[in-house]
Write a structure and sequence with these properties.
The chain starts with 5 loop residues before the first strand and ends with a helix. The protein is an alpha/beta fold. It has helices spanning about 20-30, 70-80, 90-100, 115-125, 130-135, 150-160, 175-180, 215-225, 240-250, 290-295, 305-315, 325-340, 355-375, and strands at about 5-10, 35-40, 55-60, 85, 110, 145, 165-170, 200-205, 230-235, 260, 275-280, 300, 320. It has 2 domains: about 5-170 and about 355-375, Glycogen Phosphorylase B (Rossmann fold), CATH 3.40.50.2000; about 175-355, Glycogen Phosphorylase B (Rossmann fold), CATH 3.40.50. The chain is globular and about 65 Å long. The longest helix has 20 residues, at about 355-375. Helix 11 links the parallel strand 12 (about 300) and strand 13.
Length: about 375
Amino acid sequence: MNERPKVLLLIPHLGGGGAERVIALIAAGLSRAKYDLHLALVTEARAPADPFPPGLTLHLLGVSRVRSAGPRLLRLVRRLRPQLIVSGIFHLNFLVLLLRPLFPASTRVVVRQNATVSASLAFDRLPFYTRLLYRLLYRRADRVICQSWAMAEDLAGELGIQKSRLAVLPNPLDVEAIQDAARPSPELRPHSNPWPGLGPHLLAVGRLSPEKGFDLLLQALALVREQIPSANLLIAGKGPEETALKALCSRLDLDPAVRFAGQVEKPHALFPGASAFVLSSRHEGMPNALLEAAAGGLPIVALPASAGVTDLLRGQPGAWLAAEISAAALANSLLQALRSLQPGQRFDHPFVSEFRIEPALRAWEDLFDSVLGERES
């Protein structure tokens, strides 16, 4: 009887951004009958308080930052000897691929790219050598997973990677759980209502970092409130730009209209009462926050953050796509949406179906089987 292949999934920690949630959801849903599953949390030293899925072995590396994890990760791989390693975020991908020559020869490596490479290199505050790392290290991967064909084409053009080594896989969404959480609850107490005032109430979710464009969103909100003075905004997330964004709020006289909610483990709990979800990113791959908002039926107002986002939303009922990446364009789309929406209006976004967890997991398993089959051939 053949042993199940060992699959080691790697993320920095649980409860992070979309990339971490994607890998955690995959780890919870992959077949235990087919794979001996392991999940390593690089910067966690203690097991999570919430119950963990059965049939999944947890490894805690307990380092302070990803770049320090090399020795412990190498020891884990040499002890565990997984047939397949799957890494879920770009700076961890770099470390895994840098160490790959030291792994057992039979180990295959798949990395998931969580941003459009050209935009990330152009707009993010990355070290000057990041492009070189991408070009040198990503060639060592057996597959690079992208979230859209546009993203894959961009990566192939920027890094010169053969298209046969690129895969486009959907982010899995537990659509039913999101929809259940998004339904208004009659038990909601007034003091726990995150949406005070008349509204309309705008929701944005993401790391407080430059690429997410929350500065553009605040400038757009100031323009919107000139015509709709009761409009307000809740931003769920934390990050290095929090102080700067709060200062911008004050300069724009938006303090009464904007709430910074910090990291929210389940953003869909905020969907009841939200008038619309806003994607203000300067660039994105395929943002999970957007997909979750669509699964919850929220109206969506978005900047054209990537070709993948544009292809997904263009012409869709309940979605307003700005003409360009600017505060003025975002404000214009917000006003169009808010003037046409009825209170509490929701939409059945048909594109969500391709991200449902069952078909998405089958696609991931098919990729794993293909890569593992190459090892055996």
